[in-house]
Amino acid sequence: MIILEAMAKLSGPLFSIAAHGTIGKAVTYSRRSTHNHARYQKKQHDHYTLARDLQRIKFGIASRIWANLTEEEKATLEATL
């Protein structure tokens, strides 16, 4: 007996006209305006760069600053945008 760890998240029966979703992070079924198709879902490469890491650090700092603001301070800042 084979037990699969990842269950398929499809909407509609597989190989049907209405099937769409991804199976096992590998095959994606989708509907287009003219046709349905299945395609291999390539995994995106996560390239580590200094610029990316610095941007993530800056975003994290800004996020923590925003979380510590009062509602009045947030409203003032949002009004200036």
Q: Can you tag this structure with a few keywords?
A:
36% helix; alpha+beta; 4-stranded antiparallel beta sheet; 4 strands; 81 residues; 2 domains; disordered N terminus; 2 helices
Strand % is 15-25%
How many β-strands, per DSSP? 4
Placed side by side, the strands forming the largest sheet appear as: 1-2-3-4
Q: Mean pLDDT, as a whole number?
A: 78
Helical/strand content category: alpha+beta
Order of helices and strands: EEEEHH
Number of separate structural domains? 2
State the share of residues found in helices, binned by percent. Answer: 25-40%
Q: Give the oligomeric state of the chains in this entry, treating copies of one chain as homo and distinct chains as hetero.
A: single chain
Largest sheet: 4 strands, antiparallel
Give the N-terminus to C-terminus distance in angstroms.
59 Å
Number of DSSP helical runs: 2
- Unreliable stretches covering 5 or more consecutive residues: 1-8
Shape designation: elongated
Q: What is the CA-atom radius of gyration, in angstroms?
A: 22 Å
Question: What does this 3D model show about the protein?
Answer:
This protein has helices at 50-68, 71-80, and strands spanning 9-11, 20-23, 27-31, 36-40. The protein folds into 2 domains: 9-40, no CATH class; 50-80. Helices cover 36% and strands 21% of the residues. The chain starts with 8 loop residues before the first strand and ends with a helix. It has 81 residues and is α+β, with helices and mostly antiparallel strands. It is built from 2 helices and 4 strands, in the order ββββαα. The radius of gyration is 22 Å and the shape is elongated. Residues 1-8 have low confidence and may be disordered. Strands 1-2-3-4 form a 4-stranded antiparallel sheet, with no helix packed on it. Strand 3 (27-31) and strand 4 form a beta hairpin. The longest helix has 19 residues, at 50-68.
